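Protocol step 4 of 5: obtain the predicted structure for the target chain.
Materials: sequence only (see below). No template structures provided, no constraints applied. The aim of this step is simply to have a reference model before the mutagenesis design in step 5. Sequence pasted as it appears in the construct record:
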Amino acid sequence: MSSEHAERIQAHFGASAAAYVTSVGHAGGDDLERLLAWGRALAPHRVLDVATGGGHTALAFAHLGARVTAFDLTEPMLRTARGFLASRGAGDVRFVAGDVEALPFRAGTYDVVTCRIAAHHFANIGAAVRQIAGTVRPGGSLLVQDILGHDDTAAAAFITEVERRRDPTHVRAYRAVEWKAFLRGAGLTVIDEAEVRKGRPWDDWTARTRMTPDAKAALERFVREAPPACREAFEFRLDGDRVESFSDRMILLRADRD
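Step 4 output (structure tokens):
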């Protein structure tokens, strides 16, 4: 990715690393349980978790008995994840820093590669998916989860603006048809898929990115003034002038290498 985008991600997530470890939405839920169900069925020996963030997915797969490598662009995030995993009895996980568009692993190294709630930050999604897919061994699987892009143009534009005001490293969310094209173009075949809703308590969601009071107030005005159909598409709940919560749809895909 460009050095400018990489620096923006490192600055943003480096300062917020602890908040992602304590994030309830990242720590678990139906989405992580679905990835784990696929993982149990696959019984991998070697797992790579791309864009590990706080390390929750790496921890879950380490507890399945896999040898896990946790990879992330942001070194302060990796240090925080290392401490978190060690405190949960997973001190043997390997941590590697680097760019998703230039992964430092041999082709076909891993039985399973995971990438959870991260791809909307990738500047060049096609290049990233090809790099990730290249680390999957023949017969292995990529398990990916991310925010699902909305098919309605107005709703998609609305939520992209909400996301970018809250987090300037957000690029965009992709629709199911786009995800399948990325995976097919990287030589993978979609075997299974799921969609889940994930609730976003507003105060927690905005605090995690350290929004200033003025920026948060401006974002809340933007949400209140948006067309009702856009708010309804993401289940925004308002209490007077206050935004209480909304929800994201998450797409989960298992794609195998032949």
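Step 4 remarks: Strands lie at 46-50, 67-72, 94-97, 110-116, 136-147, 188-201, 237-239, 242-257. The domain at 3-149+169-199+248-257 is CATH 3.40.50.150 (Rossmann fold).
Proceed to step 5.
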